Amino acid sequence: MTAVEGDALLDVRGLTKTFPAPQGLVDRWRGKPRKVVRALTDVDLTVRRGETLGIVGESGCGKSTLARCLVRLYPADRGSVRYAGEDVLSLGGDELRRYHRRVQMIFQDPFSSLNPRMTVGQVLREVLTVHRLRPREGMDARVTELLSLVGLPAEAAGRLPHEFSGGQRQRIGIARALALEPECIVADELVSALDVSVQAQVVNLLLELQEKLGLTVLFVAHDLRLVRHLSHRVAVMYLGRVVEVAPTNVLFERPAHPYTRALLAAAPHLDPAHRVDAPALSGELPSPLDVPSGCPFRTRCPHAFDRCVTERPELLDVGAGQQVACHLFDPAASAGGR
Amino acid sequence: MTTTAPTTTGVPRARSRRRVKPTLALGLVLLVPFVLAALAPRLLAPYSPTDFDYSAILQAPSAKHPFGTDNFGRDVLSRVIHGTRVDMQIAVFTTLFPFVFGSLLGALTGFVGRWADAVVGRVADLVVVFPFLVLVIAIVAVLGPGLTNMYIAVSAVGWVAYWRLVRGEVVAHKQTEYAQAARVLGFSPTRVLLRHILPNAITPAIVYLMTDMSLGILLGASLGYLGLGAQPPTPEWGVMVADGKNFMVTAWWISGFPGLALTLAGVTFSLIGDGLADALRPRS
User: Fold this and answer.
1) Residue of B nearest to A180 (CA)
2) Bridge-partner residues for B69, per DSSP?
3) Domain span at residue A258?
4) Domains of chain B and CATH, by start
């Protein structure tokens, strides 16, 4: 998919989020410093209006935390998030409610993301009522409209979540988010809990809706094929950092960061003649409790050298809209590999 | 990028109506005579519950006195029927306040967390350090015997169970994606708690309420037996069992029938609680 030329709708700068690790009473009493899980460290990211930005990475890399920080489910420790110029992290009360009308989220688990005691109609009507989007008379028509938008029959309104399949529930989740007529949708692992056959339907629905409604989509996923199928640009995360951002075709054809290369190489390929030269990743993903100094990837990187231990690489432009956080691509460095 | 979303196939038809569970049905049927007796004891009881009849003391069950008479010649059946109102009142009053207060406090502290949760948690610890009955007896002893003081004592201690139950559920439900979705949808914290979390978190407390009602009756009976609850000549089942204890061998019916009523009431509430647990559980 070709990149969308648009102004920045969502601009993330230096976003950092840590979670305190559980600490025993004795350690606390002794005044031992509390360990923290570094979920996000200095994340920089720009989402353009109308594009789909895919965010990929292994589980535990912070992609879900990022999604939750963006919709203010988690308070961030540091950094800034600007949405159309507005400082998202300082919003409160009515301003926050207005922000949530513009930026909505779709959740991962089709089984826990719907209140088991509310019918689909009640769920949608509550959203419309709280935000005063429709007068009482227009409510039922709007519910039917929302359901048909996601390919569900009008009768679905009278049913409880347990009467639907996983794919249908995700459609309900999408309808719930669309009830607010948002500009931007954050989809956290939208289809990873679904059967492969159903995944395509839901993903295509999202694509169709994006085109129809001009949505900006932040698509968080670990499935590279899905991300390739529907993203304009892709951000790769590793241990709470963005290590590479590029237009989808560039990223998949010319991955720059050693981690991206390893990730693409690890994805199964249907052609048995297909061979990749990038070495498979060795070693375990380091604990986010104990992130390596310098470059977080250096412990598993086949190209790591001295500078990677001491200095953290910043995201640098390498042309064609591609940004990489790796010393190998720093023109100032002499010890470049490729 | 122009794929059309296939219209979803087969949304399951006909919402299958949930049948009332046999335990719940049996419990509700058994509850009927208790409710009737509590509402209109005068219509059902053949005699006065308190009038002495020295010409008919300690009579065994007969056609005239189906449950026999006690050592003052009072009709045991009439006393059991009149006692129903007192004991049902005990069942409700010993549990209602703890249920309402404990659940609301649990919802609030579980949702807010932080210091509020910690403070209430320590107070709750303080209460549960003492054995339940001992603490109730101690409070009643200080306030003086009688039903009102018993309600106060039980309320002061009983809320802890509901607080714990609801607090834990709220903490768990707060993390669910539907609760997070409600927040992202811009709902106020009050709405998220009362409309989304609490209806799902309250179920175990309602089920426990039913069990607690039968425990409440037993507690009222125990305190009545010890002379700290209902005072004679109030016809209360526990007091009646206590009154008959000296005649246990010669006139078993004086304690036996109120004891039976007590047991039956306990079974009834347990059945209802059990049935409610099934009925209230959302299907997934």
Assistant:
1) B185
2) B75
3) 8-90+103-112+185-190+224-329
4) 76-280 (1.10.3720.10)
